[in-house]
Fold these 2 entries.
Entry 1:
Amino acid sequence: MSAVLEIENLSVRSGETLLVSNLDLTIGENARVGLIGESGSGKSLTALAATGLLPPGLTATGSVVLDGTEVIGARDADLVPLRGSAVATVFQEPLTALDPLMRMGSQIYQPVLRRRRRAGEPAARADIEAEVRRLLERVALPDPDRIANAYPFEVSGGQRQRVAIAMALACHPKLLIADEPTTALDVTTQAEVLDLMAGLVREEGMALLFIGHDLPVVARIVDDVTVMRRGEVVERGPVGTVLARPEHDYTRTLVAAADAFDRALGAAR
Amino acid sequence: MTAVAATEPRRMRASLTLSVGIVLVGLHVVVALLTLVWTPYDPAGMAGGRLEGPSLAHWAGTDRLGRDLFTQIMIGSRIALTVGAGAVGIGALIGVTLGILAAFATRFLDDVLAAAFDILIAFPTLLLAMLVVAATDSASLFSAILALGLAISAIVGRLTRILAKRVLEMDYITAARTAGTSWAGIVFIHLLPNIWPTLLVNFALQFGLAVIAEASLSYLGLGAPPPNASWGRLLQEAQGTVYTAPFGAIAPGLALVTLVIGMNMLADGLRDIGDPTRRRSR
Ligand SMILES: Nc1ncnc2c1ncn2[C@@H]1O[C@H](COP(=O)(O)OP(=O)(O)OP(=O)(O)O)[C@@H](O)[C@H]1O
Ligand SMILES: [Mg+2]
């Protein structure tokens, strides 16, 4: 089985400061991998490095092979066609991840149009609009026509995140990167969006890199998990094993915190 | 319920602003076009006595040489609109292009462009105008427009650079890029629409400033040569007789103020239309 994303020995630096060090991470086709760690441990930077979109001033060394193409050192123009077809991303804060001045239907329209043009499929307005509507239904949005005509500030956070997921789906990526997609949502909405994503990833045959800092949330949607701390991988393995027998102290505190949280919830019930 | 009640007056105010702006600017445009084919009197010829006050025959009175002032103010509209549109047009074209380039550029090019904007902004417009006159070998309306356009391009460039950088940091830009949007797509689909409302208001401001600045340039002989009566020239000519014939200064002043205010209201109204969060709210 070939890998969609193969990261070897990735280091990200800001000047002399090492933000991610010697990270290895491989995601095979249809694999669902979690990346967890506390705030500032380098999860988002790893995801950005994977798509060649590190903020200016940060440099990456090592090797990132995305769908057969080396990303590090590549010209941006060579990566543009790769993005979207190989990978698409859903971000933490759906309000800032959508263009505030653009109707949400148009925001999904763009990636559909681009994908169809690249694939040489029919790209007539009516075809694309029909697909936008299907995508909105696919992410279980009620009243797709109203949502398509609305601006991001006019709908709820959960609905915005569904639109962001629809935008990512519109690309038909081989790998979906979700960077804490549910952190900004309340607990009920969080569960709904997670279940939606889990279902979509399975049905569309996408691989998933799910980033989070909440072990139970991540465990719900992935098979394997990599634990990061201060820019380094401290532990990795199947979710069940890591949860049941955490080897690293830091993972143990994560599991303990999650257990304590569960107990607190249980006591409250 | 309350949200709707709160936005209704705001929306009405926005459309009122826009309407007044359209009327004021539209009036000047109509007058300017009219002067191409007709003026009440020959702008260069004696039309009555010297320094007459306003009358039915001479709505704004006459100047020191007995020429009809209203005719000159009408022609002044044409010159003001030409200067404003020309200077802002040049400034916007150069400024927006370089500003966006700077926002996308490597650190080095960005620093160079930022420094160039700052230097040009610090550079006195007067000196710039003299250089342009020297370079084009004649003081004309065109040299004034070019000098003002260059000065405006630096201001617009700096503003565009800052606005564009802020937008380029937003998640939706990264999201669009991870989804495979090209640079051109980022600029035209996301960046320009998001910085446009702020730029537009700035253009209106620069338009007003350019019209006023042209007045000082033509006073110094760096703008439109006589007999082209720009409002600035009329104001300067009326200076010596402001106590005996105050209307000679009041009339072109009023014309200037109505155009500048109209431009600003037009821009405010357009911005409100372009911004969905101001336009409507549910
Ligand atoms: N543009 C940047 N320049 C310099 N340092 C940065 C930059 N972006 C992030 N960092 C630093 O890199 C480290 C890792 O950041 P990153 O965003 O990857 O963390 P994270 O694991 O995603 O955290 P969170 O859970 O809060 O999102 C942090 O210490 C952060 O301060
Ligand atoms: Mg992060």
Entry 2:
Amino acid sequence: MPEMTLVDSVNDALHTAMDEDDRVVVMGEDVGVNGGVFRATEGLHDSYGEERVIDTPLAEAGIVGTALGMAMYGLRPVPEIQFMDFIYPGFDQIVNEIAKLRYRSGDQYEAPMVIRTPYGGGIRGGHYHSQSSEAYFTHTPGLKIVVPSTPQDTKGLLLSAIEDPDPVMFLEPKRVYRAVSDDVPEGHYTEPIGEARLAREGEDVTLIAYGAMHHVAMEAAERAADEGVSCEVVDLRTLVPFDRETLEESVTKTGRAVIVQEAPRTAGFAAELSAFLHEECILHMIAPVQRVTGLDTPFPYTLEEEYLPTPTRVLDAIDETLTY
Amino acid sequence: MAVADLEQRLDPQGEPTGDPPSLDEDELLRIYRAMAATRRVDERCMKLQRQGRIGFYGASTGEEAAAVGSAAALDEEDWVFPALRQGGVMLYRGWSLEKWFHHLFGNEEAAEKGRSMPCHFSDRDVNQVSWSSCMATQLPHAVGMAYAADYQGDDTVAAAYLGDGATSEGDFHTAMNFAGVWDAPVVFICNNNHWAISVPSEKQTASETFAQKAEAYGFEGHRVDGNDVLAMYEATREAVEKARRGEGPTMIEAVTYRIRGHSTSDDPSRYRDEEEVEDWRRKDPLHRYQKYLVMQDVAAPDDFEAIHEEIEAEIEEALAAAEEGSPPDLESTVEDVYDEVPPHLADQMAALKNQLEE
Ligand SMILES: Cc1ncc(C[n+]2csc(CCOP(=O)(O)OP(=O)(O)O)c2C)c(N)n1
Ligand SMILES: [Mg+2]
């Protein structure tokens, strides 16, 4: 298996999908000739031509709205939104149209499409190149939300998303686009949407995270181990629908949970997970769930490292649950 | 449909065409100075980025005339809603270079307190509203501001800048439509620099020109040589005067070219020919204007050297001052989210401080 970075794995998955199925089209700003500002679509334009790899006008509502029309008519569009921070001009199309088409048409029409977008902080991008706004979308019935954290999962999940009959938002942790690499299977290969990955087994506390924060959780687990604390780490992978079984099992076993999310705290996805754990596992829990999150502020520029959750902050939260 | 003529006051050799400009010598030199400062500051900032001293930069090389020529036609009390390449507007309006560098370094001394990424120049002192990065979002604001000024009986005009790429966003069309319906005192200035990152302007629109879009919204659009600073000045002046007379909006398409990459994160060799860039280098707005100034005896060739040296010295001084600046206080992260820091944010900050102090 070749070793790949996360962004190369996105690219590999797109090549694989376009090779296998000529209904797959890629579209967005700078995705064609330039191969994407992060190079996620590198080489696609050369291999599949401008009819299938479309450099669109600069308009997110147009990108996702026309993708919906294509999806209705049988294509499998994979629109890219250059940064998640720029998705909002397309918000109405996503939330009111793409998410609801199957339901409001009584299942006569469907919207099989994958909206890929890099999200998250840690790249010195300030308010408009750092947002982690998954919660707006997890709150929208009709969308599946996938957030990979490793190159291997990225390919498997992206190919699953493209095959999925429902619209999927595929959020790519750009902070680790090139910072992580692992072995990625060649050719067609899928990972199931809706299943978490048990990334590390442990006894004392369950750490739950997704995307870039999974790596923060792993580092915290490593450091906790040095202090004799055994962490189980769950990489959520899919936010909607999330893997209830894995979470329930793990927290029933450990009795403690720390959830890490880089998005602002209030009404973030960690709150949903926390509510779920309290509802389902309360009799097994030794301490209330702890959340380690971004602040309830716009994403700062200079002080971004202070804003973002760190392994140290996760360790503090672990400590809170242990000393409760 | 015939393509509208390109409005010019200077031919590529700097020879005046048509009426002489309505500017005196001091004004002509102030314009030159701001253009030259923009060019030099950009060069310095590109270097700072390469040295890793700032994280990002988007230069406006080649587009100085579009920025400064239009800025010179505005009054001090007019409001500016910039896009990415309007640093020259700020410099013409007298914004200090020290503040410029504080902003690039993300210092607490910056007008925006170190919260925004580089190149989001804004300062209430020069009536330049903060730009958000999100393409075209500023345009409806400009129309609303213009409406409010009119409503309050002020004769303040809004200058709303955008790029060719931004004309594809819904907010552009919404703003143009509202401006037309309301007869708002706003001037849209669209730098058609032929590229939106890697996407050429032919892929943004099937219209012959960007200027003609104004027609559909019920007002005039002018296609102006954006590398001709006097043409930019005159076209903007007419549009501003018209707006002040209560005769509504105008759109100006400044036909120009993005000489450098989109930003320091971009490699234009991936998508465009160097030949095209060379063609446009020959139309350099600064050289053209220099020739004009010399021909008109407003300046001697040596004067430019002196001006450039002065600018370089100012840059070094401002840079040195900004390098002494400090990062924002941790606590400032939770300030200005609201007028007052609400209890939950105060708690979050207290917890964070505790953790960081451990
Ligand atoms: C809503 C939105 N979508 C995408 C982007 C990413 N982006 C930044 S600049 C740019 C191109 C802008 O082109 P243009 O409007 O022509 O301005 P120029 O950079 O040429 O001055 C793009 C796509 C953005 N900033 N905002
Ligand atoms: Mg442009």
